[in-house]
Amino acid sequence: MDKTLFYEQMAQILDAEEVKPENVLKDFETWDSLAVLSVMAMADSKFGVAIKADEMRSAVTAADLEKLVEGKLK
Amino acid sequence: MKHIFKHKRISAIVSVVPREEYRFDDEYPLFKLTDDKARRFKKMIGLDRHRIAPPEVCSSDLCLYGLQQLLKEGTLKREDIGALLFVSQTPDYFAPPTSNVLHGKLGLGPDVVCLDINQGCAGFAVGLMQAFLLLEITALPKVVLLNGDTGSKQVDRCNRISYPLTGDAGSVTIVERCEAENPIYMDVKNDGSRHKAILIPGGAYRTPASPETLVIREVEEGMRQNLHHVSMDGAAIFNFTMEDVPRQVQEVLAFSGDSLDSIEYFLFHQPNAFILQQMAAKMKIPPAKMPNNIVTLYGNSSSTTIPLVISHNYPAEFLRAQHRVCVSGFGVGLAWLTMVMTLGPLTTCRLVEYEPV
């Protein structure tokens, strides 16, 4: 999995200069229901995987989302 | 479930929107959005302006206005009306059916089928299916398919997600038999296990109207709603539009022997610009073939968005000639229905503004 691409995409979605794995999603003011949809769309279009809303609810950090996407790639 | 309808066609489409237009840039202070969030939201969802009917105007009024235009100009004769099919989630009353109310207002004779269908975003396609089926009654001349939704009455004006997205509109589609075979390829699917993905929980008989159902709650920051308002599970709907609907579209294209090249226009329901862009990308549909401007210009008006797509974007094209099209409606139910057909030339294809009579 192209991790650089993943974090670049996350930065774009969250309107942030940079997103690091340890960053807590809720700390971003832009982490809202639209951002959730954007992550689902990004996972689908850039990595070809479908994530469900339920699976995203337990994600706390950006790394949790990365693991979610990576888990689907296997 | 797949089926081929034959010897049927759409002959005219009139869409009707309220004159009252509201702009997102003027309204967003209502939603307590910061400038940054508003800008992000506007760009992603494709918001700019929407049409909202005044409180006294019902969906049936918008439909009736369009229908009277067709009668006045002579495109449709009263004696040719064999059925009034009213598809809506904003009827005039719980009872009687709104199609009967319209039948009375038009002063039609007794040999007319009146039928209401409770359907939302798939409602244009579901209505077409029912119209084609009604035409099996050989004594029935033409079906008047009326799609009307005043969804603005099912959202709180301060709800920052639902309200700016919503638009009100009505449409009239004339469906009739034709000599040419004109095969129309359809697939219809439903999944009631996901019926809560889009739900108006209160006000009917499962949870009757009461002081409690009217209490406005803030379910998420900026998302105010009571039990009479539409509640949506955005993520579940996103999964639906990215998996079930594209799969069905591919299936129907294979069923009709078409391809992305042979279809000239993909006339899809318009939930919002973001979802449509994602759907087009997923199915590799060139954006030029799939109009995606109705939410931006009028708002999402549920079952009338496909008539709006046609009458706003391609009135001249469909008046002049026939075109190979793929029509897809998907939403509340969940229900999804896709058709491939040759559409046109139409005798009428236009979008008008409602004027109170």
Q: Strand order within the widest sheet of chain B?
A: 6-5-7-8-2-17
Q: How many β-strand stretches of chain A?
A: 0
Radius of gyration of chain A using CA atoms only: 11 Å
The quaternary organization reads as: heterodimer
Strand content of chain A: under 5%
For the termini of chain A, the CA-CA separation is 10 Å
Low-confidence stretches of chain B: none
Task: Name the average pLDDT of chain B.
Answer: 95
Could you describe the 3D structure shown?
The complex is a heterodimer of chains A (74) and B (357). With 74 residues, chain A is an all-alpha fold. Chain A has a single domain (3-73), classed as Non-ribosomal Peptide Synthetase Peptidyl Carrier Protein, Chain A. Chain A has 4 helices and no strands. Chain B has one domain (1-357): Thiolase/Chalcone synthase (Peroxisomal Thiolase, Chain A, domain 1, 3-Layer(aba) Sandwich). Helix content of chain B is 30%, strand content 27%. Chain B has helices at 24-27, 35-45, 59-73, 98-106, 123-134, 162-165, 234-256, 273-283, 294-297, 305-313, 315-320, and strands spanning 2-5, 8-17, 21-23, 49-51, 81-87, 113-117, 142-150, 168-177, 184-190, 198-199, 217-220, 223-225, 231-232, 265-268, 323-331, 335-343, 348-353. A 6-stranded mixed sheet of chain B has the order 6-5-7-8-2-17, with helices on both faces. Chain B is globular and about 60 Å long. Chain B starts with a strand and ends with a strand. Chains A and B meet through helix 2 of A and helix 2, helix 7 and helix 8 of B.
How would you summarize what this structure contains?
The complex is a heterodimer of chains A (74) and B (357). With 74 residues, chain A is an all-alpha fold. Chain A has helices at 3-13, 33-47, 53-57, 62-73.
Structure keywords:
heterodimer, A: 74 residues, mainly alpha, Non-ribosomal Peptide Synthetase Peptidyl Carrier Protein, Chain A, 4 helices, 58% helix, B: 357 residues, alpha/beta, Peroxisomal Thiolase, Chain A, domain 1, 6-stranded mixed β-sheet, 5-stranded mixed β-sheet, 30% helix, 27% strand, globular
